[in-house]
Amino acid sequence: MVKKVKCPTCGKETEWKAENKWRPFCSERCKLIDLGEWANESHRIPGEELPIPSDNDDDPYSGYH
């Protein structure tokens, strides 16, 4: 029996198997929509924001942005 999951983007039921190269998404379109939402920061992982280092910090790597 093949496990079925809901596509995180559209909610369509899709099979979780090796042949489904877009899993857990139902299609490339849904995968790209999700990627775009992460890129636009519509999706975020909760946590503390880190301070942005200034040019005056003693960090030897500060010039390597």
Describe this structure in words.
- The chain is an alpha+beta fold.
- It has a domain of 37 residues: Erythroid Transcription Factor GATA-1, subunit A (Erythroid Transcription Factor GATA-1, Chain A).
- Helices cover 18% and strands 12% of the residues.
- The protein has 1 helix and 2 strands; from the N terminus they run ββα.
- Strand 1 and strand 2 form a beta hairpin.
- The longest helix has 12 residues.
- The model has no long low-confidence stretch (mean pLDDT 85).
Gap between N and C termini: 50 Å
Strand element count = 2
- Please name the CATH topology of the domain at 3-39: Erythroid Transcription Factor GATA-1, Chain A
Label the CATH architecture of the domain at 3-39.
Answer: 2-Layer Sandwich
Q: Percent range for helical residues? A: 10-25%
Give the tags.
single chain, about 60 residues, alpha+beta, Erythroid Transcription Factor GATA-1, Chain A, about 20% helix, about 10% strand, elongated
Compile the SSE list and pairings.
Blueprint: E1 3-6, E2 13-16, H1 28-39
Antiparallel strand pairs: 1-2
What's the short story on this structure?
The protein is α+β, with helices and mostly antiparallel strands. Helix content is 18%, strand content 12%.
